[in-house]
């Protein structure tokens, strides 16, 4: 795929992107924006409170003691500073994630500039601004002009340059009727003239939606994200209760804990790591799709992609190359295979169709030497003769084509021997039985003697590596269903070769829709690709419907994703990205919560060390002083966010494997890792903090 | 050690360990038939004749299914009636027969007691044999011992139906579940158990107070009473409210080692069999086994920890005395007492055969921790299972994300609604415990009263006593850290409210969860689905349970028992 959208392959995280995101991080301090993230909002409130305390302290007779221990002069200010840093780091993560979409958005925006449209009104042309077009208007676009809005071609045929949107530089053909009628506003007509019926209001076009999506402006929280947010908010509430009740309870037996220490404890306990990175993870997930030239119309669709249990794949173009290819030469009547091969290739030399080319290629691979140019006169294929061929200079003729046509040609003077016909019949059968297409080759020499040389086996060739991908999908728990218009025999032969789990043969759009409904009734989540108008109902019904950009606007409307490359195999990548998104959320949540254990071991002994020296036993990290322990925990808490931003943007590595083994691995890395890492991190930070005067 | 219960030449530790092993073996044998029997009880289409009679009397159509809302309203209405009637019976005591001449308890005590028995807590702010006569004990308390356990069972079964059913708006019929739990399960089992208890020497009479001359030559007034019948359901229904103040430390309630082992078995029987019921009803017994395994792992860890700590006997007094025998019956010894204490607090029974207050400082933390776990290992009758399933929902949510699917448990999607309900359920008890304890010290007038009247052991231990009281009440356990005078207006009222909210808020949330699950269709399991029957998931569930508890209670434990034990 050629790309202008993601022109230079960007590293997921670099210093330049970080620097560019800093202003955004400050802008996001607006409490009205922060409110949407309850965990970080709490940190913001804590930051404001400690700042006020730090400013007021000198006038109130220096820092309070906490839990029976004197706190150093700069303690409150230090806590306040690091709380601000924590909030900013969280905003930075979101800002960096959004920044990645900005470049795409800017290049898209250039296509959106207002152009002059030529509107057809009662057969007359009038010039209007593209911004004034309405749905249903007819506009004429001639070569060299920009198409003023999204629509369908209702008249004419033209080649269109869509590189502004797809990044694909080769022009595409758009014509009225059929499945290639959709045009996108902002693309340029290169040849001919078309009349377009506008189907989208200005401001709600495909490009507008794309800009909104890549910028993250129209991002809605997905159900799973909402559920996770609720869990995080509930945990935060528990910790607020814990912190609010400490002093009243402690007051019976010990000196109260100062407010900065309580706020520090609260911030350390609430799941700030995942709270800070949650929205960045979501934006980055969408962005990973955009990098693969897929536009998801909602985050919900990306999430659903991770849940997909059934993949509906069209045979042609997805599982097979889409064109039949020669796979063997079957001689009859004692003909040498070499002779059959040579004649079959000779008739195909001038044949530009993929089938013809594949015969030449197969012959060459079998070591048959062929002339550079066609010797003799070509007899082209016609629908009437249903065969093509070659008249050689020596007067002999070669023909290849459908069995009945070639046999009829061969028998034009006298009937063929029945034994030969029987042998031919058997060869032809053997090809048909496996889903292939037989082509019969015959030759007539100068004297008029006819020989049937044999059969060329043409078959749908399954794409390289597709079988492995299906095996991978099966390991992920996803069933593949191949959908094709072929007859059952052909379909099953190819299905078996490709390794799909199920085949829907002789499929009509209605059957496809029916299949999706049946799968869904069984609780399955279905993903499919489609491009035609008659795919639209199925695309709409599927949980993940990926429309090809080359498809009709009806298909694009119905699906919840659009693939700009129009590559149906990308469905597999989409599923992967969906899973990766969910795993990243889970991993960072697990890590965040597991971190709390170490933070408790840092802060709890520090809080009451003054009154209960025995609690020093819990100071397993041997942190140097109570003040240093608390500050170190806060610093760790802030730094871990920055350290994890690349992971949040890149996503956790995902390999196709059973759920059990993925769970085991991720629990080990993020659960156990989350338990251990902060013990080490806090200790190291403490070694530095303890060098500060007073700590 | 009781003579005759175990051979005299066995070391008491070994005898206790053997006893526990016997109970474990019996549980392994018992949980299958009992679990399957309960599954059959709550799924069978047939009604017994006596049940049909009950339905006619209360005007219920046994075939009428209820939505979660209707189910919850029935539970609440039934419980309100329960609280009012127990309250009324106590307040009218002096006019009732067989009241042994005892006066009516105070308003706040009657409120506390009524709530306590209706919520399956059986917290007793009073000395039962000196406060309540036979009528109140039987007509009010014993009835609630049965029905409160039956309510717990009904809620658990309703939640199981939520998982088992597909696209229905209903989760069963509360009145049918309640009646069947009583008629088919609790009443027959209680009768059987009472007979066994009688055989071990537990008393059953209406003899009132008997004046006896003691061997030392003193005179004592000893109350008799229908103890065995109370005792059976006290343990079977994980109620815990004793006939006597000394509870299962009293020789009339718990005479010897054999009766003690039987009591332990009774407490664990239903809670450890319910996972089997769950597995059977959802059609995948491995799922039930996984839940039982998680309960079992926590159970074994807790029992071992308390046993080890008490045998070690850290602390000034135990070390001076040679062993941590303070507050423990010589009949039972250290280990048996520790096991009973663990079982009683791991289930929501709250019965005691030793005084938890007198455990070593760190040892005293364990019964508290057991309750703070949310009483899920194996927990109360019904409440243990639904508590553990709610934790499983949270564990699945995190585990499900980790395998790259939006989480689902038994084919049911866990979306915002389910997580809201599960998270709120988990939130209720810690909030009640911490807020209740904090308010006891934060309100100046209350604090003065608490310090002057209630706390007998000032300092950290007093703090632990108050914390224990609220932990016990909010988790509906009912055991007490003796040494706290709880029969005051503050504690009776505050603990009563904690018991009410700690019982019914989770119940309503759990029923809502059941309803939302029952309405869903089922997602088929694939290799991409998080397996919830493997050891890894059991580990995750145990981890989540411990982490949720530890994170919530670490600070307050550090202030109470930890500070006391480590100083």
Automatic annotation (TrEMBL), chain A:
SUPFAM superfamilies the UniProt entry points to: Calcium ATPase, transduction domain A, Calcium ATPase, transmembrane domain M, HAD-like
Catalytic residues? 314
The subcellular localization recorded is:
Cell membrane
Enzyme class label: translocase
A single GO molecular-function term is: ATP hydrolysis activity
| Major place of residence | membrane
Positions of ATP binding: 351, 355, 381-388, 400
Spell out the reaction equation it catalyses. Answer: K(+)(out) + ATP + H2O = K(+)(in) + ADP + phosphate + H(+)
* EC numbers for this chain: 7.2.2.6
GO CC field:
plasma membrane
Transmembrane intervals: 39-61, 73-93, 226-249, 261-284, 600-621, 627-647, 667-692
Query: What family does this chain come from, according to its entry?
Result: Belongs to the cation transport ATPase (P-type) (TC 3.A.3) family. Type IA subfamily.
According to its UniProt entry, the function of this protein is described as: Part of the high-affinity ATP-driven potassium transport (or Kdp) system, which catalyzes the hydrolysis of ATP coupled with the electrogenic transport of potassium into the cytoplasm. This subunit is responsible for energy coupling to the transport system and for the release of the potassium ions to the cytoplasm.
- The protein, known as: Potassium-transporting ATPase ATP-binding subunit
Organism, by scientific name, is Arenivirga flava
Automatic annotation (TrEMBL), chain B:
- Which residues are in coiled coils? none
- Spell out the subcellular localization from the entry: Cell membrane
Per the record, membrane topology reads: Multi-pass membrane protein
Which keywords describe this protein according to UniProt? Cell membrane, Ion transport, Membrane, Potassium, Potassium transport, Transmembrane, Transmembrane helix, Transport
**GO cellular component, as recorded:** plasma membrane
Q: What is its main location?
A: membrane
> What is the superkingdom listed in this entry's lineage?
Bacteria
Q: Among its keywords, does the record have Membrane?
A: yes
Any one GO MF annotation of this record: P-type potassium transmembrane transporter activity
Q: List membrane-spanning regions.
A: 14-30, 70-89, 138-160, 181-203, 290-309, 332-352, 383-403, 424-446, 494-515, 536-558
The cross-references to Pfam families, in alphabetical order and at most eight, read: KdpA (PF03814)
Q: What family does this belong to? A: Belongs to the KdpA family.
The entry's function note states: Part of the high-affinity ATP-driven potassium transport (or Kdp) system, which catalyzes the hydrolysis of ATP coupled with the electrogenic transport of potassium into the cytoplasm. This subunit binds the extracellular potassium ions and delivers the ions to the membrane domain of KdpB through an intramembrane tunnel.
The subunit structure is: The system is composed of three essential subunits: KdpA, KdpB and KdpC.
Q: PANTHER family attached here?
A: POTASSIUM-TRANSPORTING ATPASE A CHAIN (PTHR30607), POTASSIUM-TRANSPORTING ATPASE POTASSIUM-BINDING SUBUNIT (PTHR30607:SF2)
Output this protein's name. Potassium-transporting ATPase potassium-binding subunit
Where does this protein come from, organism-wise? Arenivirga flava
């Amino acid at each position: 795929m050629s790309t202008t959208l993601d022109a230079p392959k960007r590293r997921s995280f670099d210093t330049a992107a970080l620097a560019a995101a800093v202003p955004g991080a400050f802008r996001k301090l607006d409490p009205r924006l922060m409110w949407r993230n309850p965990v970080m909002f709490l940190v913001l409130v804590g930051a404001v409170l400690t700042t006020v305390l730090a400013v007021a302290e000198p006038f109130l007779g220096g820092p309070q003691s906490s839990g029976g221990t004197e706190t150093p002069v700069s303690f409150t200010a230090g806590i306040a500073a690091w709380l601000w840093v924590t909030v900013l780091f969280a905003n930075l993560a979101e800002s960096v994630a959004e920044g990645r979409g900005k470049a795409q958005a800017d290049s898209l925006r250039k296509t959106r500039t207002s152009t002059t449209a030529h509107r057809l009104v009662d057969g007359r042309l009038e010039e209007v601004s593209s911004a004034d077009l309405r749905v249903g208007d007819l506009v004429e676009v001639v070569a060299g002009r920009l198409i003023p809005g999204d629509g369908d071609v209702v008249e004419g045929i033209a080649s269109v340059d869509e590189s502004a949107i797809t990044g694909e530089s080769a022009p595409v053909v758009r014509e009225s009727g059929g499945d290639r009628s959709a045009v996108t506003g902002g693309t340029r007509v290169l040849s001919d003239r078309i009349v377009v019926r506008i189907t989208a209001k200005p401001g709600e076009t495909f490009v507008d939606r794309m800009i909104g999506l890549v910028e993250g402006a129209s991002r809605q929280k997905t159900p799973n994200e909402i559920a996770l947010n609720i869990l995080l908010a509930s945990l935060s509430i528990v910790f607020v209760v814990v912190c609010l009740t400490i002093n009243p309870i402690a007051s019976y037996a010990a000196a109260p804990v100062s407010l900065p220490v309580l706020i520090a404890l609260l911030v350390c306990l609430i799941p700030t790591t995942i709270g800070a990175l949650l929205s960045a993870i979501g934006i980055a997930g969408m962005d990973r799709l955009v990098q693969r030239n897929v536009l998801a119309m909602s985050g919900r669709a990306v999430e659903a992609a991770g849940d997909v249990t059934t993949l509906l794949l069209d045979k042609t173009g997805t599982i097979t190359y889409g064109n039949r290819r020669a796979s063997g030469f079957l001689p009859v009547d004692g003909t040498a295979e070499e002779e059959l091969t040579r004649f079959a290739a000779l008739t195909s030399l001038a044949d530009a169709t993929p089938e013809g080319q594949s015969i030449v290629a197969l012959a060459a691979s079998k070591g048959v030497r062929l002339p550079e140019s066609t010797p003799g006169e070509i007899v082209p294929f016609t629908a009437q003769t249903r065969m093509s061929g070659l008249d050689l200079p020596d007067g002999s003729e070669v023909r290849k084509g459908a069995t009945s046509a070639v046999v009829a040609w061969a028998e034009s003077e006298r009937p063929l021997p029945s034994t030969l016909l029987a042998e031919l019949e058997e060869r032809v059968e053997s090809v048909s039985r496996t889903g292939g297409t037989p082509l019969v080759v015959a030759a007539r020499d100068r004297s008029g003697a006819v020989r049937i040389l044999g059969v060329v086996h043409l078959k749908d060739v399954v794409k390289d590596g597709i079988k492995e991908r299906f095996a991978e999908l099966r390991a992920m728990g996803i069933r593949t269903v191949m959908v094709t218009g072929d007859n059952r025999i052909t379909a099953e032969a190819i299905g078996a070769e490709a390794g799909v789990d199920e085949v829907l043969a002789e499929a009509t759009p209605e059957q496809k829709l029916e299949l999706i409904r049946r799968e869904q009734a069984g609780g399955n989540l279905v993903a499919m690709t489609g491009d035609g108008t008659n795919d639209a109902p199925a695309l709409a019904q599927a949980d993940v419907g990926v429309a090809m950009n080359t498809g009709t606007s009806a298909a694009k409307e119905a699906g919840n994703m659009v693939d700009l490359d129009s590559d149906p195999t990308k469905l597999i990548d989409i599923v992967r990205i969906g899973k990766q998104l969910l795993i990243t959320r889970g991993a960072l949540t697990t890590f965040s919560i597991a971190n709390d254990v170490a933070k408790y071991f840092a802060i709890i002994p520090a809080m009451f060390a003054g009154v209960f020296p025995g609690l020093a036993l819990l100071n397993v990290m041997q942190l140097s002083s109570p003040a240093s322990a608390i500050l170190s925990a806060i610093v760790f808490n802030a730094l871990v966010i920055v350290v994890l931003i690349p992971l949040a943007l890149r996503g956790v590595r995902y390999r196709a494997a059973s759920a059990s083994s993925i769970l085991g691995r991720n629990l080990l890395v993020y659960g156990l890792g989350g338990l251990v890492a902060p013990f080490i991190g806090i200790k190291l930070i403490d070694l530095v903090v303890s060098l500060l005067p007073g700590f | 050690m009781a003579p005759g219960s175990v051979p005299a030449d066995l070391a008491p530790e070994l005898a206790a360990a053997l006893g526990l092993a016997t109970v474990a073996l019996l549980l392994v044998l018992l949980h299958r038939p009992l679990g399957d029997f309960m599954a059959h009880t709550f799924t069978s289409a047939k009604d017994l004749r006596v049940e049909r009679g009950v339905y006619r009397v209360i005007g219920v159509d046994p075939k009428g299914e209820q939505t979660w809302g209707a189910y919850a309203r029935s539970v609440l209405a039934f419980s309100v009636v329960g609280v009012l009637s127990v309250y009324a019976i106590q307040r009218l005591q002096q006019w009732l027969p067989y009241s042994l001449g005892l006066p009516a308890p105070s308003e706040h005590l009657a409120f506390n007691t009524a709530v306590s028995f209706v919520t399956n807590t059986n917290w007793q702010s009073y000395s039962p044999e000196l406060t309540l006569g036979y009528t109140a004990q039987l007509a009010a308390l014993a009835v609630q011992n049965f029905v409160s356990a039956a309510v717990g069972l009904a809620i658990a079964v309703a939640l199981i139906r939520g998982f088992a059913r597909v696209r229905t708006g209903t989760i069963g019929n509360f009145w049918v579940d309640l009646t069947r739990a009583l008629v088919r399960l609790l009443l027959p089992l209680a009768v059987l158990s009472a007979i066994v208890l009688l055989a071990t020497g537990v008393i059953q009479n209406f003899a009132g107070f008997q004046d006896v001359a003691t061997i030392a030559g003193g005179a004592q007034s000893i109350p008799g009473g229908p103890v065995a019948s109370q005792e059976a359901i006290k343990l079977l229904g994980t109620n815990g409210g004793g006939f006597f103040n000394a509870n299962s430390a009293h020789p009339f309630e718990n005479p010897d080692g054999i009766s003690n082992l039987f009591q332990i078995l009774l407490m664990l029987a239903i809670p450890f069999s319910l996972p089997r019921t769950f597995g059977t009803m959802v059609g995948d017994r491995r799922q039930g086994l996984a839940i039982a395994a998680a309960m079992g792992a926590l159970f074994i860890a807790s029992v071992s920890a308390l046993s080890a700590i008490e045998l070690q006997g850290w602390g000034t007094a135990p070390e001076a005395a040679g062993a941590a025998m303070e507050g423990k019956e010589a009949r039972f010894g250290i280990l048996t007492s520790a096991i009973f204490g663990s079982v009683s607090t791991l289930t929501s029974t709250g019965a005691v055969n030793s005084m938890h207050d007198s455990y070593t400082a760190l040892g005293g933390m364990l019964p508290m921790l057991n309750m703070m776990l949310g009483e899920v290992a194996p927990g109360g009758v019904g409440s243990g299972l639904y508590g553990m399933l709610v934790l499983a929902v949270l564990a699945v949510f995190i585990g499900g994300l980790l395998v790259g699917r939006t989480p689902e448990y038994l084919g049911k999607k866990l979306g915002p609604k389910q997580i809201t309900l599960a998270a709120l359920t988990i939130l209720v008890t810690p909030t009640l415990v911490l807020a209740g304890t904090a308010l006891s010290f934060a309100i100046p007038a209350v604090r003065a009263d608490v310090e002057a009247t209630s706390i007998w052991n000032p300092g950290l231990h007093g703090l632990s006593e108050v914390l224990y009281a609220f932990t016990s009440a909010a988790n509906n356990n009912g055991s007490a850290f003796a040494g706290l005078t709880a029969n005051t207006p503050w504690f009776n009222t505050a603990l009563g409210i904690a018991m009410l909210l700690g019982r019914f808020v989770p119940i309503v949330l759990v029923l809502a969860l059941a309803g939302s699950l029952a309405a869903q269709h089922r997602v088929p399991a694939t290799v991409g689905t998080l397996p919830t029957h493997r050891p890894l998931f059991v580990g995750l569930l145990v981890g989540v349970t411990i982490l949720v508890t530890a994170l919530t209670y670490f600070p307050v434990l550090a202030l109470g028992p930890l500070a006391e034990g480590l100083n």
